[in-house]
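Quick one, tokens below:
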């Protein structure tokens, strides 16, 4: 059936001829990767202060998300239109709200807003199947993920559908979903949860839905923008891909951003719109799809909407946010240090090269265990979740940067194991993967043009006489976080080859807060620890 479903032109907007024949429009309002930003955030994606909120310098927060979704949905419905509200995953993890309430706060607000469907994100597994199971107990909308096989887990079996079909304005809208297959490396689903290739699963599932008479099919994914484009190009029959995971801002007004929607040529020559709406509650996406009488997609248009101070927070939800925030306010507002400048923790920087937040965290790690024979510190860039601006540094800001409750881990490993670990770290830079390594006590050079697995050019280790070449046969002492030490983000070598491992050190956020306090006012820096050939 999909062979007949051709776009009349490869344009972001509908052609006038196509629009004239079309009799059905579907609006998709969507978010992704909210990451527990229940409260509003500043321009660095960290929790916004009351002073900045009063000055109109804050963005997002779940109360603004509610306002904008309600405004869009009500406006479309009042005009007789058709609308669905989707979440492409990763409500979990990222602030003291998640540390305190786990998925309960997210479930409460999602129910209040009235999402139609949510995709499972990788961070929904951060507290194992138990955490996701508790969330599923509380939400009222379907939470789907088709390539995620939970049949072997007693808590999740039968509870995560592969797809759902919505009746919207008398038309059947199929929503299919997939999750990144490396979730076992980036989160904690456990051995009972398995993952099928995204494209293989979607190809089968879309064909099944078409055979059942569903001719409007949306993929709600949590795999990243690059993989979304591959899916759009390879899976017959998809009408759109609404994604998350890579925190990509698509926009028609933001300079340098991919266009919204980004059109990808499908297997049958028709164009498939792909959309995503950044992260952290800052944007809501608004996509309009136009179909003709036969279910052929004839147009796609829209944009992301910035939730700045011009968007008034929903009063009822804001009151509840403040109520839930009361018990954590003392911890969040405690000032631990001063910083002389912005400490850069932006994912676009820390997942592609040396960043000042990476240097702060790895220096803090190394300083904490320097009397234990440890020479090298290693931190995954994906574990750094925000920047910290100049001035007072609060514990809330530190916890926003480091929300995962990781502990310090120490071990010994041969130099060749470190080379292998660095190769893993730079193997997926093109996808913005969180495995990119931030280091202390070490310098390395890598070649972005080389094939993954062959990118490390040189490695130097700091010693008593300055930096010396790493010896592949020598045993080195290393400190990292317990997530990476146990194989997270692809660092399996640290799990299989580590000697004398100890994973139960102090919390990483405490280590960093203590280091900032002892070295204040802190002066952020970069120091050519990581260079590109």
């Amino acid at each position: 059936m999909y062979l007949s479903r051709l776009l009349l032109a490869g344009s972001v907007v509908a052609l006038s001829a196509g629009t004239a024949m079309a009799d059905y429009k579907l609006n998709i309002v969507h978010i992704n990767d909210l990451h527990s930003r229940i409260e509003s955030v500043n321009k660095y994606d960290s929790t916004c202060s009351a002073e900045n909120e009063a000055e109109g310098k804050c963005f997002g927060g779940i109360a603004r998300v509610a306002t904008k979704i309600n405004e869009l949905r009500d406006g479309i419905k009042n005009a007789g239109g058709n609308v669905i509200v989707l979440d492409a995953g990763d409500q979990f993890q990222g602030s003291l709200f998640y540390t305190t309430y786990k998925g309960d706060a997210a479930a409460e607000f999602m129910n209040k807003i009235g999402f139609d469907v949510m995709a499972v994100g990788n961070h929904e597994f951060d507290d194992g199947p138990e955490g996701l199971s508790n969330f599923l107990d509380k939400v009222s909308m379907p939470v789907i993920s088709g390539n995620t096989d939970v049949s072997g887990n007693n808590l999740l079996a039968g509870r995560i559908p592969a797809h759902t079909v919505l009746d919207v304005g008398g038309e059947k809208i199929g929503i299919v979903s997939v999750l990144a297959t490396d979730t076992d490396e980036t989160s904690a689903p456990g051995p009972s949860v398995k993952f099928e290739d995204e494209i293989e699963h979607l190809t089968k599932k879309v064909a099944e839905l078409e055979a059942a008479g569903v001719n409007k099919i949306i993929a709600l994914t949590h795999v990243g923008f690059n993989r979304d484009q591959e899916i759009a190009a390879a899976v017959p029959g998809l009408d759109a891909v609404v994604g998350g995971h890579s925190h990509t801002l698509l926009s028609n007004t933001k300079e340098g951003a991919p266009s919204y929607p980004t059109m990808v040529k499908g297997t049958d020559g028709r164009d498939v719109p792909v959309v995503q709406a950044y992260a952290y509650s800052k944007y809501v996406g608004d996509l309009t799809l136009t179909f003709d009488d036969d279910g052929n997609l004839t147009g796609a248009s829209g944009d992301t909407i910035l939730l700045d101070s011009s968007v008034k927070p929903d009063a009822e939800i804001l009151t509840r946010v403040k109520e839930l925030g009361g018990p954590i306010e003392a911890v969040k507002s405690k000032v631990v240090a001063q910083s002389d400048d912005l400490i850069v923790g932006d994912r676009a920087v820390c997942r592609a090269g040396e960043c000042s937040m990476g240097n702060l965290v790895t220096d803090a790690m190394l300083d904490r265990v320097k009397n234990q024979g440890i020479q090298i510190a290693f931190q995954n860039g994906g574990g750094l979740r925000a920047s910290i601006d100049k001035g007072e540094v609060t514990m809330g800001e530190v916890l926003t940067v480091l929300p995962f409750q990781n502990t310090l881990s120490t071990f010994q490993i041969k130099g060749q194991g470190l080379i292998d670990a660095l190769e893993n770290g730079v193997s997926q830079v093109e996808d913005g993967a969180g495995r990119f390594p931030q280091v202390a006590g070490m310098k390395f050079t890598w070649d972005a043009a080389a094939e993954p697995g062959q990118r490390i050019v040189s490695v130097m280790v700091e010693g008593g006489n300055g930096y010396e070449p790493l010896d592949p046969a020598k045993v080195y002492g290393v400190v990292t976080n317990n997530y990476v030490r146990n194989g997270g983000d692809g660092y399996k070598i640290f799990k299989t080859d580590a000697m004398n491992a100890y994973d139960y050190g102090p919390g990483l956020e405490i280590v960093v807060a203590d280091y900032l306090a002892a070295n204040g006012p802190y002066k952020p820096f970069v120091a050519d620890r990581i260079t590109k050939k």
